[in-house]
Specification:
This protein is an all-beta fold. 0% of the residues lie in helices and 59% in strands. The strands form 2 sheets. Strands 2, 4, 5, 6, 9, 10 and 11 form a 7-stranded mixed sheet that branches. A hairpin with a 6-residue loop joins strand 4 and strand 5. It is globular and about 40 Å long. The relative contact order is 0.33.
């Protein structure tokens, strides 16, 4: 079993920045993928970015050039640096981990970008 705990959400004006963090604990395989998804009101949950334990990254087109995902394998922590935030980035952001054959989710953290 894996537990994911997120932090760092909040309210920011358009053009501002936020940094999300997510720490994983439990039985964690060396090879795993961590990432962030988001869900806006009335919309489906969508991929934001993922990063493998080897450092390979994948981003949604809507955040490329503005968001940066990184991780600390030693601390089993993933970060999402969000710059140049837009009102359309407003959503609940969920941390996720693909660990072995299982996927785990955090409880979500609210990000609100005001115009």
């Amino acid at each position: 079993q894996v537990q994911l705990v997120e932090s760092g959400g909040g309210l920011v004006q358009a053009g501002g920045s936020l940094r999300l963090s997510c720490s994983a604990s439990g039985f964690i395989y060396i090879d795993n993928t961590m990432g962030w998804y988001r869900q806006a009101p009335g919309k489906q949950r969508e991929l934001v970015a993922t990063i493998t334990s080897g450092g390979s990254t994948n981003y949604a087109d809507s955040v490329k050039g503005r968001f940066t995902i990184s991780r600390s394998n030693v601390k089993n922590t993933v970060f999402l640096q969000m710059n140049s935030l837009k009102p359309e980035d407003t959503a609940v952001y969920y941390c996720c981990m693909q660990n072995g054959r299982s996927n785990y989710w955090g409880q979500g953290t609210q990000v609100t970008v005001s115009s």
